[in-house]
Automatic annotation (TrEMBL):
Originating species: Methylocystis bryophila
Residue segments, region Disordered: 32-74
GO function terms (MF aspect): hydrolase activity
PANTHER family assigned: BLL1128 PROTEIN, UNNAMED PRODUCT-RELATED
Record's GO cellular component terms: extracellular region
Name of the protein in its database record: Esterase
InterPro entries: AB_hydrolase_fold (IPR029058), Esterase_phb (IPR010126), Plant_Biomass_Hydrol_Est (IPR050955)
Amino acid sequence: MKSIIPAMREATKLTLARDLVGATRILQQALNGSAPTEPAPAASASPPHLLEGAAPAARPKESADPARGARARKPLGEALDLLRTFKPPRVDLGGLPLARHPQPPVPNGAAYLTRSFSCAAGSRDYKLYAPSSLRENSPLVVMLHGCTQNADDFAVGTRMNQLAEEAGFIVLYPEQSRSANSSTCWNWFHRAHQSRGVGEPGIIASLTQSVVEEFGADPNRVFVAGLSAGGAMAVVLGETYPELYAAVGVHSGLAFGVAADVVSAFAAMRGPVNLTPNAASKTRAGATSAVRAIIFHGAEDTKVHPSNGGMIFSDARSGLAGRTQLIEEDAEQGGRKFRRTVMVDAKGHACVEHWEIEGLGHAWSGGDPKGSYADRHGPDASREMLRFFLKPTETACRARAST
């Protein structure tokens, strides 16, 4: 193993510089006993992160063959496992985007499936949790991870599978591909992914419909939630597919149409958003959410300014039909104070909730810290979202039923 150490050192340098392709090549050549046939490309400076990381504006064409991506990832994962066994002094690989993620537990009788999906809009891998008590017409909750996360990590941090086991609903975890975004961010900030029937909204919506049909889920109880970039994409789905998703859960996300490129995305994340005439504001002009929404945001969030939660709340309010009443309460839960603002209709149904949590940064409130971007303190965002989703309500909250 002595001869492989220099290769591991070089691969570590490339990994820290986010040149994962070069690092993998070095390791594979060392394991095969061959010398490099060409020098590893110099690591280029990574662009600043968008919601913990973002891809450049140019994106590769979506692959029509989801199995191709699965084959490409295996050697990369093995190479990174080797990297993790080599621990040079003062080097921590734990924070890298491809760090090992925890595996969610699967109780007897339940299933946690790994699959791929392809449609006209593109393809993605996904995980699906089917509880042991699965029945016909079960609710379906679609969970969209944040940047640098994957389905397993997000499932652990949110504990959504445990809640699914308790309440008997299906959980769908679409996974962003690294070919679409190097930091696995959903591309909420590109106009190509802000419309119905195309891009990532088209893929996720088609996947959702496929799961509803396959598992006999209740089409009237389909919900979507997400964290950070995933929360922003959940907002996009609520805006573009209001007939498919009955409610949206947004944690530390951004409003629809506040960005159309990398520059405007940074501006939105810094907040408050200045809606000067540009591509982003033109997209945003029609932003009036037609679905019920529950919004969480930490008051100490330094990655996505808390004003973004307020903007999502404002959009959701503007989409309400009929007479509504505003209810505010200040309370404490899980060791953290929060303000909850609720818009209810004339019959007392909660149409929109906005939770502003003191002391919380960019993390899922009341989550499991075994997962990334999860804080054990504060209100249990997962349980509160589920309560909001599953509480019987009428369609009076909606301003429109479809686009």
